[in-house]
Amino acid sequence: MSDNKKIVSTTIMPLFPEGGSDFSFDSAKCNVEALPLIPTRDVCLFPGMTCNITVGRQFSAKVATDAEKNHNYIGVIMQSRSSVEQPEADDLHPYGCVAEVVKRLEMPDGTCSVIVMGRRIFKLESLLGTDPIYLGQVSLVEEIVPRRTDREMRALIQTIKDYVNDLISIVDNGHAEVQFGLNNFKEYNFLVNFLSSTLPFTPEIRQTLLEKFDLKERAETLARYVSRELEFARVRANVVEKTQYNLSRMQKEHFLHTQISMIQEELGEGSTKEVDRLRRKLNYKTLPYQARETFERELAKLQRLPDQSPEYGMVLTYLNTFTDLPWGLHSTDNLRLDRAKRILDRDHYGLDKVKERILEHLAVLKMRGDMKSPILCLYGPPGVGKTSLGKSIADALNRRYVRVSLGGLHDESEIRGHRKTYVGAMPGRIISGLIKGLSDNPVFVLDEIDKISNDFHGDPASALLEVLDPEQNTTFHDNYLDVDYDLSKVMFIATANDLGAIAPPLRDRMEIIDLSGYVLEEKVEIGVRHLLPKQKNENGLKEVKFNIPRKTMAAIVEQYTRESGVRLLDKRIAKIMRKVAVRVANGEEFPASLKPEHLIDFLGAPEHDPDQYEGNEYAGVVTGLAWTSVGGCTLMVESALTKGKGEKLTLTGNLGDVMKESAMIALQWIRANADYLEIPEDVFNNYNVHIHCPEGAIPKDGPSAGITMVTSLASTFTQRKVRARIAMTGEITLRGRVLPIGGVKEKLLAAKRAGITDLLFCIDNKKDVDEIKPDYRQGVNIHYVRDLKEVLEFALLPEKVKNPKKFY
């Protein structure tokens, strides 16, 4: 047996082909106190038998080599667990067979083939060692062999022979060796051991037979196992016979069904219950001419096919899919604009641009009576309500709602379907969605359209071009359906987190609506109006008097969440509700109205610090504004001068390339306008400049900090105070122009939360500010500027900071 867990050859053969019975044993060759052992995985050796074993493990190979050289006996013992490479005493059966090595052959693969002859059964008393070879202390077992005149033993042997002969007559392979043994071996112990070794028993059964030391008991056990094998063989033969009969019967039935179908076709009697059912399903549906023609053709094919034909099932499945489609069935749009607005406002707070676009569609539909549905793409960070908005739009329009997730899609067949000739073919997700929606004008949400990919199966994004093009989707072709289907009435709404991941041709076919995320005030309203009632209901607290005021909700948003949407806020509210549920269940007291100071008990220590104004006591410290994926925030800019040659500009704070360029432009503008700022030229030659943006672990980039950096440098060079509670944002040019930036709403609200009272924006951003609700702008004075001189005139005060530094 080899180390690689396989036996190349295991051949059992008699010692004496003439039927002799020499079980001679030379005790001088057997060291029972320390017998070398060969553990085998599934080979059980019997006395009087020869076994060919392939040995691969080094310790077994050494035992075989030494035994052949010294003409000593070894022990062959089978493992109780064949998978163990280095068996211990518990991994070996208690009994084995003393054997003599007849011959050993080296094999090309590095293993060796060992022929051993079984001599006596032994019992393993203890395992003495395993390295370098296995040694065991054994005791020899005396077998009880009945006399040849024992009538009971003679009858038992004859029974075994009859069983084996019957087994050979049924199993017609590899029986010549067994038949030879039955005819030639006369000794009881030899014949029983030969059959135990040769018949197709498992290694465990052979081990069981070996451990029967009374030969009569071993023969009785052998008779039971042979009888069982005989019964199994008869059952298998019966199954084979029945299978052949059933196959012949099916061929006959196929022939008869074919004849019957031909007769029915001649007589015009081909209609069946299945055909009638399929026709009834289309009675109230409106099919185009081409679709009707395809249906009749496939239906005629179904009538000609026998029920047992594999093609019958394929055709029937196709026709069921065909008739399940909502041909001409559509829901009636509710064109009341006030109702639609009320539903949209009920389900979602904010998102005014999306709501406005839906109401526009309804208004045009009401005026024209019919029009192609728009194809929208809601783009924004996770958790802002893109997917749930599709359900609200369906409710507002009184349409069916269908959602298909495209995340991880990489096979074009998922969109267009598989050809129906393939086994297991099915329609694509678009057609399957229409079947599920039971309408040909549903609101169809294509979720995570930016997550699709392509490989050797095709490009799903290219397949979607036909779906999302109003000029092409009137004749959308699904490979499984194999007829054109009109998708022009479907209102497709795609959702995405990353516009850059969408193929440009596909992006060009959709109307992009940006959902940039919610500001603090909107999150507070969503939490109070929607999330709190939902979590109270889900946690069984609907009837419990418990409330989270807006002030506390704002503290939760600022201190325990940092996201664009409200998904994490929902989880925080859910955690609070669970804490309340525990107290209610235990009969403990809890605050009826949660205050900010209670949050530590319910949510633990705050995870984030809110933005705060840091004062104007130091020169060069200016508050800027930034726009991130989780909303707006303040951005501090600091600058300082150090003695040097004036050639070095140091930028720190994990700044991106664009922001570094803004810093370079800011310094160059300061140098170019040194006379205006009354800064001597010597200062630039004798001092190095350092600009730093705190929170260096957070990457920062973008051009909007340009005016902030100029103001910081001007304050540092002149040591003039910066106006108190002022913040600014805007891109700059070398000429000193201030350019517009994005994220105005988010930046304005971030400044308001930080206690800022004056804001500087580019004059071109006025239109963006005007779109912000007046309530959000209240308490903040907004000043519009065109160039950097206007910025500095307002931002810098004439007075110097306390303890100003002198650079000139």
Main traits of this protein?
single chain, 808 residues, alpha/beta, seven-stranded mixed sheet, 42% helix, 18% strand, extended, disordered N terminus
Could you walk me through the main structural features you see in this protein, from its secondary elements to its overall organization?
This protein has 28 helices and 25 strands. The chain is an alpha/beta fold and 808 residues long. The strands form six sheets. The chain has a seven-stranded mixed beta sheet. Strands 2-4-5-6-7 form a five-stranded mixed β-barrel. The chain has a five-stranded parallel beta sheet with strand order 9-10-13-8-14, with helices on both faces. The protein is extended and about 130 Å long. Residues 1-22 have low confidence and may be disordered.
Instruction: Provide mean pLDDT, rounded.
Output: 83
Q: What composes the largest sheet? A: 7 strands, mixed
Query: What's the total number of strands?
Result: 25
End-to-end CA span: 94 Å
Low-confidence stretches: 1-22
Radius of gyration: 45 Å
What overall geometry do the principal axes of the alpha carbons give?
extended
Structural class designation: alpha/beta
Spatial order of strands in the largest sheet? 17-18-16-15-20-23-24
Strand content: 15-25%
- Approximate helicity band: 40-55%
Q: Counting H and I runs of at least 4 residues, what is the number of helices?
A: 28
Summary?
Strand 5 (95-106) and strand 6 (112-129) form a beta hairpin. Helix content is 42%, strand content 18%. Helix 10 packs antiparallel against helix 11, helix 17 (520-538) crosses helix 19 and helix 24 packs across helix 28 (788-795).
